[in-house]
Write a structure and sequence with these properties.
Blueprint (H helix, E strand, L loop, with lengths): L1 H12 L1 H13 L4 H19 L9 H13 L3 H10 L8 H14 L2 H13 L10 H14 L9 H10 L7 H7 L5 H16 L6
Helix pairs in contact: 1-3, 1-4, 2-3, 4-5, 5-7, 6-7, 7-8, 8-10, 8-11
Length: 206
């Protein structure tokens, strides 16, 4: 429910004009096939969110309450989601990043990995994640896809990439994520390999 509320918060907030906004973006897309896919994606998301509270505006407090409840019950992904909301006023520190990384590796939670990737990219100013925050963030997100996060057609990742980058005809989110570091593939591969090794060594795993 927390994930549905998050996905549909902005959709239902501007439900009357949502599809008009999608159409405006599609109309200026240089690729007709991608533009049509953007329209279809928008229609699918619009219909899905119409079934969330009957398409009514989702109160911010309600969205946060679901996440906070999940976090209190031990859901690591929700804990990281809430931490993401705090980065503007409470920047991530290297020590905190290290602790979160240990928790994510121990939990082997693909959704948490994706959120940690977003945290790493957002911590660029503090250097909390070390190295290149873009590479670190993308490596976590690609690793999340490799560890089971839905990253194909119709996934929340692909929907977001379609709307935010215009990459609407790809069938694999990792392809689009890799394009964000087009000139740094070797560094990205090295970071992904490092994360894979660390995940393979987590307690309880041979």
């Amino acid at each position: 429910m927390a994930e549905l509320y998050e996905k549909c918060f902005l959709v239902n907030l501007r439900r009357a004009s949502y599809l008009d906004g999608v159409e405006s973006a599609a109309r200026v897309h240089p690729d007709p096939d991608a533009a049509q896919q953007m329209r279809l994606t928008g229609e699918r998301v619009f219909a899905q969110c119409g079934g969330v509270d009957g398409g009514q505006v989702i109160p911010l407090d309600a969205m946060l309450a679901w996440r906070e409840q999940a976090a209190r019950q031990g859901d690591l992904a929700s804990q990281l989601w809430l931490r993401l909301r705090q980065t503007a006023t409470a920047p991530l520190t290297p020590a905190e990043y290290g602790q979160l990384m240990e928790q994510v590796i121990a939990g082997d939670d693909a959704t948490a990995m994706a959120y940690l990737g977003a945290l790493a990219q957002g911590a660029a100013a503090t250097g909390a994640a070390g190295g290149d925050p873009l590479i670190t963030g993308l490596a976590w997100q690609i690793t999340a896809c490799q560890r089971g996060l839905a990253c194909g057609v119709g996934s929340e990742l692909m929907d977001a990439l379609c709307f935010n980058t215009g990459a609407c005809t790809e069938t694999d989110g990792t392809v689009v994520l890799r394009l964000m570091a087009a000139e740094q593939q070797a560094a990205l591969d090295a970071e992904i390999a490092l994360l894979s090794t660390q995940l393979g060594r987590r307690p309880g795993r041979q």
